[in-house]
Amino acid sequence: MGRDGNKSCFACCFSTPTTSSSSSSAIQLLFFIVPLILVSFIVFVLVPRNSTWALIYSLPPSTSAVAAAANSSEKLGAAVYAESSQLVLDLPSRVVKTVDVGGSSGEATLSDSVEVAVNRSASPQLSAVEAVTKFQELNEAKEYSSLNTSITDSDSLNITINGTPNNATTSPNETIALPLKHNRQVRTKLDKVEAGLQRARWAIREAKNGSQLRDPDYVPVGPMYWDAKAFHRSYLEMEKQFKVFVYKEGEPPVFHDGPCKSIYSMEGNFIYKLDVDTKFQTKDPQKAHVFYLPFSVAKMVRFVYSRDSRDLSPIRRTVVDYINLVAQKYPYWNRSHGADHFMLACHDWGPEASFSLPYLEKNSIRALCNANTSERFNPVKDVSIPEINLITDKLTGLMGGPSASRRQILAFFAGGVHGPIRPVLLEHWEDKDEDIKVHKYLPRGVNYYDMMRNSKYCICPSGYEVASPRIVEALYNGCVPVLISKSYVAPFSDVLRWKSFSVTVSVDDIPKLKEILMNISTRQYIRMQRRVLQVRRHFEFNSPPKRYDVFHMILHSVWLRRLNVRITDGHGVVAN
């Protein structure tokens, strides 16, 4: 009985009536939930609370919207020539365009007719690419001493060039969270290149408020520069790290060759100097900041173009075929859609050659003598270079002139009548005034360079194209240039403050030319003439090149544009 009684009691304690089965199930479920809550709380307390998510706001609704913003920005850059120089000098302080090539290399073929939409919008709202770039800049700033910039995993963060994540549809003002992996110590070679550019940007920004740097050859000072300290630091940074990869494909005379003794001489001389250069040229394309397309438009006009046809398609096909060739052989053109590539042309048809390919015109750096904003020259992205008429490979006999007080002629011009501006100049001033010497043809026995050396001001009107070799000739001979043109961006205006050593006269003011020049005081003229003598070193052609001369100034302008571009690689991480 006792054993049966105990057995009954044990059964009564653990058996439940049928009517209370639901409350017992709740109690059993509670036994599982409580430990789970405790574990979650412990994890929440122990795990670091630093967020690994970047919030991206206000994505552009479509590629066309971004393209419209880019077009409006380009028009703005073309309209504000007077401000463009200062804007470009301040390039390192901000990113004008960010090119993200993750996942786009295979899709962007050269046959695409759609132009690349580059983030150049002036809107305060950030695009996805710009926001991610700013997020990465914060990481770079935190890790600056070790230079271990963040590398994001391509599977987690893959943004197309128009700012919209791949395989995603977004609406305006929609918030998207992009997961970012933890920092890795392994970086790609492109990351290293970009880290070096970031250091250069930081150094240039710091130089603006720092003391003047020492230099054994030349220290830029004076009002001829928008910011002399920033320019000096930028130039030194260029000398320290700038690397150019020259594509070896192509045969002379169209490639790796060019005229060296004509008004197009900068094409041939730059190609030749860069081909034999050992300081800036690199044989390793993965270490390059920019890639040079070594074709000569002047040689294309001579050997490819048929003068009787007036058909530019052979020139355009030559350019397209060459870029197709290097794009198929190397990954770098498709990686950036040409944003880190540059061409150089002094021929009038240089811009036309660049129109052969949308990416070449819209993305690439174009170093042009014909820097005409009405022909789609963009002073923020493109480079204006001087037109130099070289007779030999030396400047012997081309430079000199008396001091400012010994120049007796007020102003001088002699040249052919072509283009819309020169006929107006000749109509008002040819043989009309003893102080304004304007000639279609020089009188017999009168030397052109002697006239420049004895003149205070040298009139430099545009011809069919905006550029004129008279600008450099005036500087060589110590004559203050008088620029008369429309839509012209003067050479190296990203660095040089032209109004401090030249005079700009509009076409409408040609009848008042003498009045304008006479209103410049003698003291002010002497200042301008001294500044001409100081800045002309930047336009001197030397063989071999010398520091701060025209060859290095062209490279520096390309360097500044490269500082404006931040290229990210979305194809994964490659060990060093």
UniProtKB/TrEMBL annotation:
One of its GO terms (molecular function) is glycosyltransferase activity. The chain crosses the membrane at residues 26-47. The keyword Glycosyltransferase applies. It is found in: Golgi apparatus membrane. Residues 239-519 form the Exostosin GT47 domain. Keywords: Glycosyltransferase, Golgi apparatus, Membrane, Signal-anchor, Transferase, Transmembrane, Transmembrane helix. It is a single-pass type II membrane protein. Pfam families: Exostosin_GT47. It comes from the Eukaryota. One of its GO terms (cellular component) is Golgi membrane. Its main location: Golgi. Belongs to the glycosyltransferase 47 family. This is Exostosin GT47 domain-containing protein. It comes from Gossypium schwendimanii.
